Amino acid sequence: MNLVDTFKEFSSGKSIDSPTMVRVLEDVFRTLIKKKFTTDENFDIIVNANKGDLELWRVREIVPDGEVTDELSQISFSEAMAIDEDYEVGEECYEQLFLEDFGRRSIMAARQTLISRIMDLEKDEIYRSYTERVGELVLCEVQQILKREVLVIDDANGRELVMPRNETIRGDYFRKGDMVRGVIKEVEMRNNNPVVIVSRTDERFLAKLMEQEVPEIEDGLITIKGIVRIPGERAKVSVESYDDRIDPVGACVGMKGSRIHGIVRELNQENIDVIPWTGNTNLYIQRSLTPARVTNIDIDMENRRAKVYLEPDQVSLAIGKGGTNIKLASRLVDFEIDVYRNNEVEIDDVDLDEFSDEIEGWVIDALKAIGLDTARSVIETSPEDLVRRTDLEEETIMNVLKVLAAEFDDVRYVEE
């Protein structure tokens, strides 16, 4: 086994800078020298990291024959003459050493140390380089599809990255060889190996897609102030323009939606609401509930709650399918938003999933399948319609209605 060949093999194609590689080589060979000679003080190590060349030189002072008092730092005149006839007493004698002089076992041990050190350096370099790239957009090729994650190859450098299933958008379907975009979410250390996590559900993925599609964002004329997402379903983005002549929403959406459509397709038809950011909390909350039109707002700044009043026909728009619109609006403005009809009490409703401890999951799924995903939507549907549309037994339906009615003190189904 040739240690220099090993060095050449591992130094070529590695993303480790030459000074670091030289330092590693020197450390490994100085350790080798210390084991054989007990010290490395009188040795010079010359490394050419680019070519993989290595030279070892032992340096000793030439003293007259019979006057050697320290064999580690001195050499007799006769021995020096055997190396080079031009040497004289008092000069330094340079004797070249070769790897074979150290013995096979020592060379094998040094080789393993070298391999281990270089691999550790490469891991550190991968961790450092990708940590600096967290939040960047990355283009990858799908390499392997596993049950819980998809292994992808960074198109820029061939590194293997990981895209966990929970970081993919609902509806994502990959095949080996497909090109897929994502954002570098984080870098983890697993069993002393760096693992780069790629995400398509992270808010930064949408931000980077918009930056790529909207030149004004890349140029700094428009800033994304906030992004919230329910991946694959809906997203809200607030933007601000630093140039009064530029409409931030119009620039992001593009002529006839030309800019936003490409992003929507990338996100599997995720519905994206782009709204203008404002420092006016009242107005910001109103805009966050788009497409609903708000009549009035009462704001409790101390508790960060907002009571929002709307016309009856705007309530469903404000809440959105499955409550997505109001959830995202609350997250975007960082306020708890309570919805009220004008001149009426607060609309209180509860998702069916909240009753999973009292109603079996397959029953809830059957109700959701016909578009009823809240308690009130079920109660306000007649038992006959529920039986007909869900194919559930009447007894099952009546038990469900009793459970839900008890939540709202509705006497229609509570008493038998």
Report on this model:
- The structure is a single chain.
- The protein has 16 helices and 15 strands.
- The chain is elongated and about 115 Å long.
- Strands 7-6-5-8-9 form a five-stranded antiparallel sheet.
- Helix 2 (18-37) packs antiparallel against helix 4 (104-132).
- The protein is α+β, with helices and mostly antiparallel strands.
- It starts with a helix and ends with a helix.
Question: How are the elements arranged and paired?
Answer:
Elements: H1 3-11, H2 18-37, E1 43-48, E2 53-63, E3 74-76, H3 77-83, E4 92-97, H4 104-132, E5 137-145, E6 149-154, E7 160-164, E8 179-190, E9 193-199, H5 203-213, H6 215-218, E10 222-230, E11 234-241, H7 248-253, H8 258-266, E12 271-276, H9 281-288, E13 294-300, E14 305-310, H10 312-319, H11 324-333, E15 336-341, H12 361-368, H13 375-379, H14 383-390, H15 394-407, H16 411-414
Parallel strand pairs: 2-3, 11-12, 14-15
Antiparallel strand pairs: 1-2, 2-4, 5-6, 5-8, 6-7, 8-9, 10-11, 13-14
Provide a concise account of the structure shown.
With 416 residues, this protein is an alpha+beta fold.
